Amino acid sequence: MTRVIRLGLARGGVELRQTMTNGQDVFGYVLPAVLLLGTLVLMRGSTVPGTGIALGAHTFVSSLGMLIAIAGVMTMAQYLAMDREDGTLLRAKATPDGMTGYLIGKSVLVAGVSVISCLVVLPGALLVDSLSLDAAGMLLLFVLIPLALLATMPFGAMLGALFDNVRTLSLLMLPIFGLVGISGIFYPITALPGWLQGVAQLFPMYWLGLGLRSALLPDSLVVAELGGSWRHLQTFLMLGIWSVAGLALAPGVLRRMARRESGSAVAARRERAMTRMGV
User: Fold this and answer.
1) What does the CA dihedral 58, 59, 64, 65 come to, rounded to 10 degrees?
2) In angstroms, rounded to a whole number, what is the distance separating the alpha carbons of residues 232 and 138?
3) Residue 47, class by beta-carbon neighbours within 10 Å (0-12 exposed, 13-18 middle, 19+ buried)?
4) How far is CA 123 from the centre of its chain?
5) 109-150: per-residue pLDDT in tens?
6) Whole-angstrom Cα distance, residue 276 to residue 279?
7) Cα separation of the two ends of the chain
8) Which of 71, 138, 150 is nearest to 109 (CA)?
9) Strand, helix or coil at 203?
10) C-alpha 14, offset from chain centre
11) What pLDDT does 275 receive?
């Protein structure tokens, strides 16, 4: 097992280096930063209702949570769908412990992409005031971010296993953006109707954003949160529930998907792709 983990980590490192030398991938990392910077510029001068804290600071920190959550779900799902379509998963299945090494490698890649996406948007911190980080906040981040990835990546893997091509998977962006809209990313969730607040609290994106705000924003901003509290216990509880559920369900879904993979299935997907392109 140690050898499989080592190979998986090495595979993830290689794929991460490859994505950083791919112009299209790099553009995908830079674009969210540009959009976020534009949003922060438009928010300059606005404050969170009931406080003197800049609304841009709230949005900037929440957006980091959005990038991590979307990377954990959508990026993982897209990688699996692409690798399923081009036969990479079939090759992994054909080697001893290949699927385990494959999933470890993809987890390393997605975690790396999440960190890179956050680093790219960090210059946005220069456009906002009121950010605050102390030793307790740093400790919270070291625990919160890995837990958030653990809560989202297994479900991203399952979604990638359910869709056999990236074009169909792109339809998932609609509900994902819907969750972004109700999760308190661009405006405090307390401004939403009560039933939407309840829906948002069922998903990890809200809890990740709340945890990041508690680590990076002044305590005075807590008045803009539900219940006037950072709710650390509930944050770790909800992310823990999603992590346990994902780790319990994902192996079975991935095993069933791997059993259905065959050379003929890959060839059929390639033929459909070529037909759509008019080749």
Assistant:
1) 80
2) 14
3) middle
4) 20
5) 999 888 888 888 887 777 787 788 788 888 999 999 999 999
6) 8
7) 44
8) 71
9) coil
10) 21
11) 59
